[in-house]
Amino acid sequence: MRAPDPLPPTPQQVAEATREAMARDDRASRLLGMVVEAIGPGTSTLSMTVREDMLNGHDICHGGFVTTLADSAFAFACNAYNEVTVAAGFDVNLLAAAHLGDRLSASAVEISRSGRTGLYDVTVVNQRGECIATFRGRSYAMKGKPLVEGLPAGKRFAGDRQHRT
Questions:
Q1: Is residue 141 within a helix (H) or strand (E), and if so which, with residue range?
Q2: How many CB atoms neighbour CB 131 within 10 A?
Q3: 5, 53, 58, 109 - which has most CB atoms within 10 Å?
Q4: What is the pLDDT of residue 165?
Q5: CA neighbours within 13 Å on the CB side: how many for 144?
Q6: How many Cβ atoms are within 10 Å of 150's Cβ, its own excluded?
Q7: Do the beta carbons of residue 69 and residue 48 sit within 8 Å?
């Protein structure tokens, strides 16, 4: 008697595998001390502490670092389906200053994904829950190009209601 085929990975397991692959190769996020706090299909949360070398001439965190944190959260969220996906553009609104020692958290959520394009919103807050920035990213998926070889790829897989968990 033949053993049953193993269950395919769940969408959450695929997202976790893509997180590991991206975190291993993302030198920019690592250099800035970013940590992936949570990952799921189409979602992610990353955090970063504002350091001395991130301050601008006004003694506040340079907006480029806040934007980079949001962009990294966007990247982890839109790649969580195991399909290489890049930014096609983004808009950012810097709403409040971040200061030395602040722990910033960027949470990304998928708004829409259809065909090769997607839309994601990211909110950046400090350790007190105060909104520092909002970010809207537009993504472009490289169809048929998995991030992690051997795993299912694409949103169709992730949204499959027939998938066994």
A1: strand 131-141
A2: 12
A3: 109
A4: 32
A5: 0
A6: 9
A7: yes
pLDDT digits 0-9 by tens, 135-160: 999 999 998 899 999 999 986 655 54
Among residues 148, 152, 91, 153, which one has the least CA distance to residue 116? 153
The whole-number pLDDT of residue 113 equals 96
- What are phi and psi for residue 54, nearest 5 degrees? -105, 0
Query: What is d(CA 148, CA 161) in angstroms, rounded to the nearest whole number?
Result: 22
Indicate the residue type of 98.
A
Tokens of 128: 């007190």
Terminal CA-CA length for the chain = 24
Q: What is the secondary structure of 24-66 as a DSSP string? A: HH-HHHHHTT-EEEEEETTEEEEEEEPPGGGB-TTSSB-HHHH
Tokens linked to 165: 């968990």
Answer whether residue 120 shows pLDDT above 50: yes
**For residue 26, what are its two tokens?**
């993302």
CATH of 11-153, one of 3.40.250.10, 3.40.640.10, 3.10.129.10, 3.40.50.880: 3.10.129.10
Angle at 117 between CA 113 and CA 121, to 5 degrees: 60
What distance lies between CA 141 and its chain's CA centroid?
14
